[in-house]
Specification:
By secondary structure, the protein is mainly alpha-helical. The chain has a domain at 86-235. It contains eight helices and no strands. Helix 5 crosses helix 7 (183-190) and helix 6 runs antiparallel to helix 8 (197-235). The protein starts with 14 loop residues before the first helix and ends with a helix.
Length: 236
C-alpha cells in the first residue's frame, strides 16, 4: 500500500501520479427518459401481442373464435333496449356475478348494496382483463374480457330501461310490478332520475356496444400481428 509520502524512497514512484492513473474512467450517464421509453415500448409490444411467439394452432383458434364473436356482437348490437334485450346466452353467467355483487357490497349501505349487483357484473370482466394482461401476458384474452365487460353493460341496459315499466322478469320468475320493484327502479328513484330511465339505458347500451367493437378491433390486431410473426419466422 502507498504511504503518505509523495514519493516512494525505494522505487521512486510518485504516488499522486500513480493514483490518478488508477482512478476509474467516468461512465456514460443514461438518459433520464431511457427507462420510460423502454417501458412504453414494452407496453406497446404487450398490447399488440408481439411480445412472444404463439403457436399456429392457437392463433388459428383465436381467429375462429374472433369471427364467431364478431357475428354474435352484430346480433347483440342490433337488439333494441327492451325486456327482450336481456335474453342473451351471457345473461345467466352475468347474473351469477350480479347476485354475488349484492353480497359483496352489503356492508356499504343500501344504495351501494343495490348498485353492487350491476357494478360487479361489469367489474369482474375488467378484473379478468387485467389478469390476462399482467399475469399471463395474453393481450388476446384481455381483449375478449373487455368485450365481455361491454356485453355486460348491454345486459344491464334493459334493466335500467325497465325502471318505470317494471315488466322485466326477475330471478324469482315474477316481474318488478308483481314485487316491490327492482334494483334500477330503486336506484333511479333514489337519485330522482327515474324519468330519464330510457335515456340512461340508451347511453349504457351505446357504451357497451362501442366497448365490444373496440375490444374486437384490438383482438383482431393481436391475431394479425401474431400471424405476421409466424410467417416471418417461417420465411427465415
Amino acid at each position: 500500500m502507498p504511504s503518505s509520502e509523495p514519493e516512494c524512497p525505494r522505487c521512486g514512484i510518485i504516488f499522486t501520479k500513480y493514483l490518478s492513473r488508477e482512478e476509474p474512467l467516468p461512465r456514460d450517464t443514461p438518459h433520464p427518459n431511457a427507462d420510460a421509453g423502454d417501458g412504453r415500448r414494452s407496453m406497446l409490444t404487450l398490447l399488440l401481442g408481439v411480445e412472444s411467439s404463439t403457436p399456429m394452432p392457437v392463433v388459428v383458434g383465436r381467429g375462429v373464435l374472433l369471427l364467431l364473436v364478431n357475428v354474435w356482437t352484430t346480433t347483440l348490437a342490433s337488439r333494441a333496449v327492451s325486456v327482450e334485450g336481456s335474453s342473451s346466452v351471457m345473461h345467466l353467467p352475468n347474473l351469477v356475478f350480479h347476485e354475488a355483487g349484492h353480497m359483496l357490497f352489503l356492508p356499504f349501505g343500501r344504495f351501494m348494496n343495490v348498485l353492487g349487483g350491476s357494478l360487479t357484473q361489469v367489474l369482474v370482466p375488467l378484473a379478468c382483463a387485467g389478469a390476462f394482461l399482467w399475469q399471463t401476458r395474453d393481450a388476446f384474452g384481455a381483449a375478449i374480457a373487455i368485450w365481455w365487460a361491454g356485453q355486460s353493460l348491454t345486459d344491464v341496459a334493459p334493466y335500467i330501461n325497465d325502471a318505470r315499466a317494471l315488466q322485466l322478469v326477475l330471478l324469482g320468475g315474477r316481474t318488478g310490478a308483481e314485487v316491490e320493484g327492482h334494483d334500477w327502479e330503486y336506484l333511479l328513484n333514489a337519485m330522482r332520475w327515474s324519468h330519464h330511465d330510457h335515456t340512461i339505458a340508451s347511453v349504457v347500451q351505446t357504451i357497451g356496444t362501442m366497448t365490444m367493437i373496440v375490444a374486437l378491433v384490438w383482438a383482431a390486431i393481436v391475431v394479425i400481428n401474431q400471424l405476421s410473426i409466424l410467417r416471418i419466422r417461417r420465411a427465415e
